[in-house]
Amino acid sequence: MTHELLTIGRISVDIYPNDIGVDLEDVTSFGKYLGGSPSNVAVAAARHGRRAAVITRTGDDAFGTYLHRELRKFKVDDSFVTAVKEWPTAVTFCAIKPPEDFPLYFYGRFPTAPDLQIKAAELDLDAIRNAGIFWSTVTGLCQEPSRAAHLAAHGARPRTGLKPGQHTILDLDYRPMFWASEAEAREQVAKILPHVTVAIGNDKECAVAIGEGTPDEQADRLLAAGVIIAVVKLGPEGVMAKTRTERVVSAPVPVQTLNGLGAGDSFGGAFCHGLLSGWPLAQVLDFANAAGALVASRLSCADAMPTPDEVTALLAERGRPVPGTYATEGATL
Question: Quick check: 10 and 39 in contact, CB under 8 A?
Answer without folding.
Answer: yes
